[in-house]
């Protein structure tokens, strides 16, 4: 990861400090775990009696312990290792959004989105394991059913919105993912734009079955007062 320590080592930055809290050394472990912004995200997720161990150890030990913990979370369709990956990625993404766009998502939003994506993956993976059919690599995806998972979020302080999503085939296999900064939108509009972006991606890849849904989303956006510039023309 291109942290400020790495940027300084490569000679493309003169400061190795954290851009969020100002700590003098921003390495990978500090960004993902030890920064105050990261701790605000991990604290509600990690059980209290496990936090001492979680917030200690080297980078290698920390990653190995958590990525190898495949126990299923109580009441969730996902495992800890899956959730850990997504939360860590969201923390890194939030750091970059803050640096390049001066936008910061609240910890509650990062946690909610991470849990949502982890559960979507867990459900898809479970269905794939239970399915007796084997996906034929030579089969054309254009004739298959695809699943679009999207979400949108609005930063509480700036009211700036971003969307992201992932496309999977009928067997739960990953096809592609996307994310985009929108600007000033409500959370409802952000979620709808996430669906719209996903549909446009489907159409660009030749999935013609998305046309009907796309037109419905366009009408819904227009009914809410959002501007749609002839995306279906």
UniProtKB/TrEMBL annotation:
Coiled coil: none annotated. One of its GO terms (molecular function) is nucleic acid binding. Residues 150-209 form the RNase H type-1 domain. This is RNase H type-1 domain-containing protein. It comes from Gossypium davidsonii (Davidson's cotton).
């Amino acid at each position: 990861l291109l942290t400020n320590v790495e940027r300084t080592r490569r000679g493309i930055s003169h400061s190795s400090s954290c851009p969020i809290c100002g700590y003098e050394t921003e390495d990978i472990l500090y960004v993902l775990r030890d920064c105050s912004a990261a701790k605000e995200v991990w604290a509600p997720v990690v059980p209290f009696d496990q936090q001492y161990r979680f917030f200690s150890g080297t980078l290698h030990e920390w990653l190995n312990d958590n990525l190898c913990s495949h126990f299923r979370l109580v009441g969730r369709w996902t495992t800890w290792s899956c959730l850990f990956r997504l939360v860590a990625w969201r923390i890194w993404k939030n750091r970059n959004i803050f640096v390049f766009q001066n936008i910061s998502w609240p910890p509650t939003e990062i946690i909610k989105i991470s849990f949502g994506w982890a559960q979507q993956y867990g459900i898809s993976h479970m269905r794939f394991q239970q399915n007796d059919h084997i996906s034929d690599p030579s089969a054309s995806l254009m004739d298959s059913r695809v699943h679009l998972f999207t979400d949108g979020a609005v930063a509480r302080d700036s009211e700036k919105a971003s969307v992201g999503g992932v496309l999977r085939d009928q067997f739960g296999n990953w096809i592609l993912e996307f994310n985009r900064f929108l600007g000033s939108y409500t959370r409802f509009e952000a979620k709808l734009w996430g669906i719209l972006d996903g549909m446009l991606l489907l159409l660009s890849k030749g999935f013609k079955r998305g046309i009907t849904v796309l037109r419905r989303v366009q009408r819904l956006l227009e009914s809410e007062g959002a501007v749609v510039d002839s995306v279906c023309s």
